[in-house]
Amino acid sequence: GLLLCSGNGALLLYDTKSQQIIPLSTEMHERLTAHNSVLQAACLLDNNTILLSTSRNGLFELNLLTHTLKGQADANFTLPVPDAYVTKIFQDSRKNIWLGTYDKGLFADYYYKEKFGGSDNYLNRVIENSSVLAVAIDKQANLWISTLLKGVFVYHSTTQKAEHIEIAGLPAGEKKNAITNIFCDRDGQLWLSTTSGVMKCQYDGTKLNILSQWQLPPTMCFEQTGDGTVWAATSTTYIFAFRPGSTEPEAKQAFNVDFTFIPSLLKLKDGSMLISAFYQPITKMNPQTGKLSALDIPSLQRCIRRSVYIPTDMLQDAKGNIWIGTVSNGLLCY
Fold it and tell me: Which long-range contacts (CB under 8 A, 24 or more apart) does 100-107 make?
C-alpha cells in the first residue's frame, strides 16, 4: 500500500491505506535526490525494506522499521551492486531479487546464499575480480586478505571498512610477487610468504613493517607450537622452525623421500604437531624433541578412491576430531 513518487528534485512516500505521507528526514531526502536524481525503480522486499534505484546516486535500502537509509557505497549495504544502471527491481516468491539494467542485461541476488552464512558484499566489491590467496585474523579481529592482482587488504571489523596495505621496505624484486600465505602469531605479529621467501611483519595501523625476512623454498603453511616456535611447511620434504630468540630458521626433513610437498601443519590440543604431505602418511612430531612418527590409519587408504592422497588443510574441532581437506577425495574426518 505504499506509493513512491519522485520528480523535480523531490521524493514522496505515501501510505495509501492511511492516506498519509510517510516523512523522510532531510538527510535521507538529500541523499536520494542529490544531483537532481530521480527515482528510477523501487521494490518492497519481504524484510520491510524498500530497495530503491536512483538515476544519479545508485541503489539505496530504506528500512521502514528502523527508518534508516543505506547507500550502495555504505559498508553495511546488503546487496551486490552491478556495474550497470538499474532500471527495474523485482523480488520473486522465493525471495530472490532481480535487477533489470540498461544495456547490461539481468542480474540476480539469490536468497539461498543467505543459508550459507550470507555474504559481505562491501568486501566482495573491494576485492572484486581478483583471486584470494590467503586470509588470516589478527589479535584485534582484523581480517587480512591477500589477493593475486590487488595486493594485501585489511578489513577492520570495528569500522567495517577495508583498506589496501603497503608493505614498507619490500625489496624491489618482491613487489610483483603475490603474498601466498598470512599467519598471525601469538604476539600479534604477521608472517607472510611469497614464492621466494618469508617475512615477519608488524602492523603499525597504516602499513606493514618488515622486521625480518628469509629466503626459503615456497611456503605452503604456517603453524605455531606451544614453545612459541613458528613452523613453515614448504613445497619440499622440509619444514623450517623459527624459534624465539633465533635469527635464522632451522631446517628439518619431515619425509625421507625424493619428492613431496607439505600443504598443512596442525598443532594438536596435546601440544604435538601433525604434518600432512602429498602421497605420504600423516606424521606426528614432538616439537620439543623433533621426533617424527607416522600415524597408522588403516581406514585412510580406503577413503582415497581417486588418485592419491593430496591434502589441502587440517583442522581439529572441539571434540578432538581432525578434519582433512583433500584434492579429489573430499573432506575426511579422523
Answer: 100/41, 107/80, 107/82
**β-pair partners for 322:** 316
**Count of CB atoms situated within 10 Å of the CB of 236:** 20
- Taking the C-alpha atoms of residue 76 and residue 120, their distance in angstroms, rounded to an integer, is 8
Contact 2, 15 (CB under 8 A): yes
pLDDT average, residue stretch 187-192: 96
Check: CB of residue 242 under 8 Å from CB of residue 298: no
Q: What is the pLDDT of residue 121?
A: 63
pTM of the model: 0.69
In the predicted model, is pLDDT for residue 114 greater than 70?
no
Q: Where are the beta strands (DSSP E) in 128-269?
A: 132-137, 143-147, 151-156, 161-168, 181-184, 190-193, 197-203, 207-215, 219-224, 230-234, 238-242, 250-253, 264-267
Strand-by-strand arrangement of the 238-242 sheet: 219-224, 230-234, 238-242, 250-253
The pLDDT of residue 116: 44
Q: What is the DSSP letter of 112?
A: G
**Taking a C-beta distance cutoff of 8 angstroms, is the pair 210, 177 a contact?**
no
Rounded-to-integer distance, Cα 291 and Cα 271, Å: 13
Nearest to 140 by CA among 191, 200, 198, 205: 205
Strands 86-91 and 97-101: antiparallel
Per DSSP (E only), the strands in 67-188 are 68-71, 86-91, 97-101, 106-109, 132-137, 143-147, 151-156, 161-168, 181-184
241-299 pLDDT, tens per residue?
999 999 999 999 999 999 999 999 999 999 999 999 999 999 999 999 999 999 998 88
Arithmetic mean of pLDDT over the chain: 88
CA distance 301 to 58: 55
- DSSP label at 122? H
Give the H/E segment covering residue 301: helix 298-303
- Rounded-to-integer distance, Cα 52 and Cα 50, Å: 6
Give the three-state DSSP class for 82. coil
Place of cell 596442525: 266
